[in-house]
Amino acid sequence: MLPLALLCFFSGAPRRADSARVFTIVNMCDTVIWPAVTPGSDSFGFGGGFALRPRQSVVLRAPAGGWSGRIWARTGCAFDASGNGTCATGACGTALKCGGASGEPPASLAEFTLASPSDFYDVSLVDGFNLPVAVRPVNGRGNCSVAGCNGDLRRTCPPELAAKAAGGRTVACRSACDVFDTDQYCCRGKFGGPGTCPPTAYSKQFKAACPTAYSYAYDDPSSLFTCSNADYIITFCSDRKQRACSYHNNRLVCSDSSRSWPVISTLLLVLPLVSWALQISV
To answer: Which Cys residues form disulphide pairs (predicted)?
Structure first.
């Protein structure tokens, strides 16, 4: 619990009571990532894109009245002072701030529709895979299951689907539809329905790594989830069982418990760790 409390403390999470829906984006990867939010705005998602260092998190308040969109991570990016640049995966053109632009496949997508009475959410690999990602609802009601990955498809990607960087390192795994562009793999034409587009060998491999994520277009039964009035923790490079925490209404709430703790108690626990971390860094 304590290391995750430290993570939340450093994230800049709000500490005043607020009924707004909260998204906490966490980077558990070993390198910097550049999360993207679309549609994003200056008040939600820092214009649709920002950098997030390893073990760092950021808290966003969803727009009032609901929101429907995607969150994903870009990798291997380099942006100049004007916010222009390139990414190895997930780029939305050349901009740091994606605004309403979609990411370039392959990219692992966290998708949301915030609505009443229930939200819909999922992790989709239909456009390919670039990072493990898990979506955890907290504070919600209903069957609020965790969506996402337990594995890293970059390590097991079939050679014909592998997207490689300079030097031959696999940075993402493309979808079979993206690579082969056939009706069978893209679930179109005579394969354009749930009864005529069964899983393929490629989508089964995606499903094995990410059991509660969309592996192909009609993978709804084990991949689409609903929850009422929840906050969401989106963690990159995490498996579905890893604990994660978020602040809401001035309390720390974690994904494996219905309990919550006042922020003042969390700070009392965190302060000794802050002192320890500062000593280590000197």
So the answer is: 29-237, 77-87, 92-98, 144-227, 149-210, 157-173, 177-186, 187-197
